[in-house]
Amino acid sequence: MYIPGNDTYTFYVASEDGTVDMKINRTELFSNCIFSDPVEANSSTHLCKGWHNFTIWYHHTAGNASFVLSWANSTMSKQVVPDKNMRTPRTELATLPLNAFFSYKLGFGTDVSFTDLSLGDNITEWRWNFGDGTPDEICNASTNPTCMYDRAGVYNATLTVVNGTGGMSTHSELIGVPIPGDVNHDGKLSAADAVLILQMAACDIDIDPAADVNLDRAITSLDALMVSQAVMKGVNDE
Ligand SMILES: [Ca+2]
Ligand SMILES: [Ca+2]
């Protein structure tokens, strides 16, 4: 499901007789929620803008099958989740086709954290390749790994998922890992980077994890000093 912006979202499920189980990013939002009459239940969670793995089971027991999923956030009043926010059309949700997918986030230093967002029934293997020449990381459960790259660069990371019936799906993304300290992202260290890091350290705003040069997970004047020293050394070497 595509979430249009960072916010707290309330999901509403309205159903007739039946049981509903719903997960977002593998976290239960509704767990075996039982409806004995046409009723509505709701649950809230904070979500960031982007694609999220969304799974819903609806077991219908008696009467006319009906199921409606709605949502609301701080700026949007309750409405049915539009089809354009669904990767798979509603009518095809009975069997989930195998679809490898992940998101990633740049962290401190050269850390990149990955989030598995693959969809599909009966996935038996998740095979991560971080594109840096290290062997594939093979898991038999969904994981959200972190890769610490040796150096800055562009890496082609790939996730392959395999299901119990021999199906396979692959998703790749090019990941630009910045040079630690290169906070203006121009591919080199300069005095401008040191100034920006000092501003981050002083004001604690617009924090860029690439500013953490000494990898202590904090942005301080020491990081700016290290960038300055690297720049000075570059000048002296020339
Ligand atoms: Ca720079
Ligand atoms: Ca630091």
SSE arrangement:
Blueprint: E1 2-3, E2 7-15, E3 18-24, E4 27-35, E5 39-47, E6 50-51, E7 54-60, E8 67-72, E9 79-80, E10 102-106, E11 111-116, E12 123-129, E13 137-139, E14 146-148, E15 153-163, E16 168-177, H1 191-203, H2 221-237
Antiparallel strand pairs: 1-6, 2-5, 2-8, 3-4, 3-7, 8-9, 10-11, 11-14, 12-13, 12-15, 15-16
Helix pairs in contact: 1-2
Short recap of the structure:
With 238 residues, this protein is mainly beta. Helices cover 13% and strands 41% of the residues.
In terms of per-residue confidence, which ranges show pLDDT below 50 for 5 or more consecutive residues?
A: none
Give the radius of gyration: 23 Å
| CATH homologous superfamily placement of the largest domain | Toxin - Anthrax Protective Antigen,domain 1
Order of helices and strands: EEEEEEEEEEEEEEEEHH
Structural class: mainly beta
Strand content: 35-45%
CATH architecture of the largest domain: Alpha-Beta Complex
CATH topology of the largest domain: Toxin - Anthrax Protective Antigen, domain 1
Strand sequence of the main sheet, in spatial order? 5-2-8-9
Largest pleated sheet: 4 strands, antiparallel
Quaternary status: single chain
Question: What is the CATH C level class of the largest domain, in words?
Answer: Alpha Beta
Q: Helix count?
A: 2
